[in-house]
Structures are given as structure tokens and as C-alpha cells.
Amino acid sequence: MPSCNHLNAVRMRLVLFFLMLLPALLLGACRQAGDGARQPALPEAQAPEQVAAYKAAAIAEIGVAPGWGRPELVTSVNTVGWEDSAYISPDGQSLYFQYFPGDMFRIEDVFRFHRPVAQGGLGADAKQLHRYHHGPMRGVSPAYTSDTLVARAEGAGFAAPQRFAHSRDGRNEWGVMIDGEGAYWYVSHDPSRELNMDLYRNDQLLPIPGRDKFHEDNPHFVVSNHGRELFFDSGNRPQAKGKSHIWVTRESAGRFEEPVMLPPPINLPGSTEVQPHVGPDGRLYFTSARDGTIAIYAAARTGASSWAEPQKLLWTTRKSGSRAWGVGEPTLTADGQWLYFVVVFEDGRQSFDADIARVRRKAGAP
Question: pLDDT digit string (tens) for 228-265?
């Protein structure tokens, strides 16, 4: 396993997951580096106007499919902290997202502070804490965990985010979605379950076959003429052969069937597919790096277990000097007019930030 000083491959993997592998999950990997591992220096903080300038330029460079407008940042909720795991309620009135008050790609720094905080105090590292905390705390407790926040629509934007009522101190929680029956689904790393990432519904651990051995992430539950289906992604089930892919399990009378990996052209051998979202038109929206860019795709459903060829909707152009590192986490309003998503930025000095953006469907577009 690579040490924490060799981050390039780790960072790319984390981009595709949009930091669903949280600090506690990285603890075991970082232990390989040992207490005396050399830590690279963090970059100097940039002025707000510099940050705004490179983010505006990066948003303008995101590739967009015909039928959609230009992406825009949801500035009323974004900070220099990490906003991720976006979910817009079907009526467009509530925006849920994961928040961490820092740069989560600095996994070596997260690890450095994880142990003294977990042991009940910051100790000698207290003076360094601000170096990986780039944003306001916003209800996060303890400092090294993440929480789900929710912002209510106000005017053309959203009011100040508040902590989601069901967030719990001491746990990393993300991926909240609200189904048509009013239940909320989410992912949590429960310390009592070691390193597992598990799916919950209304605070109850879901009895998905294989949950004790495998990870489940990014839930999306939908009821249609195909039944009660829970889509999620997983990166350590044997059939996936070391890649993260999208799976589905059907629920009947409170019992979940054995999860099935979606067939091509959704999941492709040697590729990565994550963050499923079933749109109001029944299409499956997801994130993949199948063509070398980190992009959001949409695929029409053609049968109970079949899908049309996915179409690329949003993608990073990877132009020289572009600060848009990746896009993902698609989520749509019920009228299909607004697609919300997450952008990961890089400021040119190996410092990263994730923000929420949105793009509107053009009038008359399919």
C-alpha cells in the first residue's frame, strides 16, 4: 500500500469518489507512513478575489452537452471549506450537502490531526490546526469529521445552510437523499463497524446482503414499474475486480435482494462508475472517467436490466492550466430543469476545494 507521501494516484481515486473515503477510512493506509513520515508543506492561503477568479475561469471551461446552459456556482452555500455530495430536493427548495471545514485532499494532514483530536485534545499540533481548516466550522463536531447541511431556497439562491437535523456528532455522514415516501437515506462510517461504509434509512442500518464485508456508497432509492430499487456504488465487491461500479438491489417486504452490478454500457470493465441518480425521466445519471475525463453521463433505461448507451453531459476539459479538476454527484429537480453537481478545483499549488454548481436545461431541450 502506498505511503501518504505518494498522493497522486490516491488523489485521482478520491476525486472519483468525491471524498467519500473520509479521514477515519484513510487512517489504516496512512499508518504505513509511520509517525516520522515527512509531510509536504501546505501552500499559502490565497486572497478571496484570487479564489473567485480562478473558480470563475474554471467553471467557464467545463464542457457542456447541447441542450444545457452554462454552469454556475451556487455561491450562497459555497465556502473555502469542502462542499460535496450534493442532493437537490425534487421541488428544488432544499439543497443537502456534505461539509468538511478544510481541504480533504490533504489526507496526510487529516491523519496528522486525527489522532490527537480523537484522543481528547489537540496537544502540540493545536497551532497547526488552521493549516488544513480552510473554512468555517458550520456545525461540524469533532473538527475532523464531516456533517450534512441543508440550505432552503431563498430568492434566486439559498439561505445560510443549517446542520441537518439527523446529523450526529463523532460520525462522518454524507450522501443524503429524500425519497418519495419521505424517508431519508445516507451513508455513514460508524466507528463501531470499523472501516465499513454503510447505507442507512431513517437512522436504521440497511440489511443489504454482504454489508458486513463490503462497502456501499452514494444511495439513490426509487419506486417505478421496475419495483422498489436501491442504486449505490461499491468498490470492493468481488465481481467488480477492484473497480468501483454501480449496483442495484430490489426491496420487497422490507428485505433486500442480493445486489447486482449493472451491465454494460453502464459499468465497463477497467473503468469506474459511481454516484448514481435516477432522474425524473427515468434516466440514470452517474459519474465516470471512462474516456479519460471525469464526466457526468446520462443513460436511458430500455428494460428491467438494460440501458442505452450513456451520453456525456458535463465534463472537465483538462485544458492546460484549467483549475476544474473534476465534476460529479449529479442530482436533478423533479421538473428536470436544473442539474446540480459538484466541482473539485485545484488552485495551481496543489490545494483543492469542492463546491456545488448547477446548470439549467435549455427551453425545448429533450
Answer: 999 999 988 887 777 899 999 999 988 999 999 999 99
Nearest to 298 by CA among 318, 268, 277: 277
Q: Are 330 and 286 in contact (CB under 8 A)?
A: yes
For residue 120, CA distances in Å to 14, 108, 136, 188 come to: 28, 20, 21, 22
Pairing of strands 311-315, 306-307: unpaired
Residue ranges and CATH numbers for the domains of the chain are: 48-103+137-360 (2.115.10.20)
Alpha-carbon distances, residue 90 vs 63, 153, 331, 336 (angstroms): 25, 12, 9, 9
Listed in sequence order, the residues at least 6 apart from 134 whose beta carbon sits closer than 8 Å to its beta carbon are 45, 80, 81, 101, 102, 103, 353
* Euclidean distance between CA atoms 171 and 147, whole angstroms: 8
Alpha carbon distance 326, 323 (integer Å): 9
Quick: pLDDT tens for 221-234: 999 999 999 999 99
Task: Report the 10 Å Cβ neighbour count for 2.
Answer: 12
Coil, helix or strand at residue 109? helix
Q: Cα–Cα distances in Å, from 35 out to 112, 127, 195, 300, 333?
A: 9, 18, 21, 50, 47
Q: Is the pLDDT of residue 10 over 60?
A: no
Chain CA centroid to CA 144, Å: 17
Strands 147-154 and 72-73: unpaired
